[in-house]
Specification:
Glutaredoxin; 6 helices; alpha+beta; 48% helix; four-stranded mixed beta sheet
């Protein structure tokens, strides 16, 4: 009798595992589908960059181009850090943020090339522009590619280092 009970339990465990193997991929896909969409349709990137530069010029801000994709976990982490209370006001007061969708490394590659971003190094990758569109910084070495290993405070430091200084001075002074 004990042997039959053990056999029955083993069969039940196997059935549960088989069901999980079938159901889990669908559950994971549904969870991903409910994730936040950070990067808009790739076709709007050039228009959004232009509009951000117009706003930046009027408001004496800089522009951040965030190259990435909605599938990218490190891009999701960067977006979470951008919206962290320690960073959100710093970002909103000093920058116009444009999320540039690179698709599966097959969209907006011309824009990445134009601003000096080697997508082969990974994403997210940021570009800082002056209000007149001059590249002040292009991350060319995958600096934020492993954003999951960094802290929100690392982004705070980055934003503080690159925010415009309206009074002059500093390594990245001026607009």
């Amino acid at each position: 009798m004990q042997h039959r009970l053990q056999w029955f339990n083993a069969v039940q465990t196997f059935k549960r595992a088989a069901v999980l193997c079938v159901v889990l991929p669908f559950a994971a896909q549904a969870a991903r589908a409910q994730g936040r969409v950070i990067y808009p349709d790739p076709s709007v990137a050039k228009t959004e960059i232009h509009q951000a530069l117009v706003r930046a010029k009027a408001q004496h801000k800089r522009v951040i181009l965030d190259f990435g994709g909605n599938w990218c976990g490190d891009c999701q982490v960067l977006d979470i850090y951008f919206h962290d209370p320690a960073n959100k006001s710093l970002l909103e007061e000093n920058f116009e943020l444009v999320d540039v969708n690179i698709g599966q490394y097959d969209a907006n590659t011309d824009i990445a090339d134009h601003y000096g971003i080697p997508l082969k190094r990974g994403v997210p990758a940021l570009v800082i522009l002056s209000p007149d569109g001059k590249v002040l910084l292009a991350q060319t070495h995958g600096e934020f590619e492993k954003m999951r290993t960094l802290q929100s405070s690392d982004l705070t430091k980055f934003l503080n280092d690159w925010k415009p200084t309206h009074r002059g001075g500093g390594a990245h002074a001026g607009l």
